[in-house]
């Protein structure tokens, strides 16, 4: 699965709905980013978080 997104001038990106659905992501969930060799990988760290 490949999705392309653009970063806003404020540095924000929106994850496409099919990607959020496939990963089970919901508002309020916390992600951490790991950067290595020019690649960024996001991981969910709070699966049961409530929306802000």
Walkthrough of the structure:
- With 52 residues, this protein is of the alpha+beta class.
- It has one helix at residues 17-23; strands at 30-36, 39-46.
- The chain has one helix and two strands.
- Helix content is 13%, strand content 29%.
- The chain is globular.
- The chain has a two-stranded antiparallel ribbon.
Q: Tell me the total number of β-strands.
A: 2
Derived from helix and strand composition plus strand pairing, the structural class reads alpha+beta
Strands ordered across the widest β-sheet: 1-2
Order of helices and strands: HEE
Terminal-residue CA separation: 29 Å
- The helical percent reads 10-25%
Tally of helical runs = 1
Mean pLDDT: 89
DSSP strand content: 25-35%
Q: What's the shape? A: globular
**Spatial extent as radius of gyration:** 12 Å
List the helices and strands and how they pair.
Elements: H1 17-23, E1 30-36, E2 39-46
Antiparallel strand pairs: 1-2
In brief, what are we looking at here?
This protein has one helix at residues 17-23; strands spanning 30-36, 39-46. It contains 1 helix and 2 strands.
Main attributes of the structure:
52 residues, alpha+beta, 13% helix
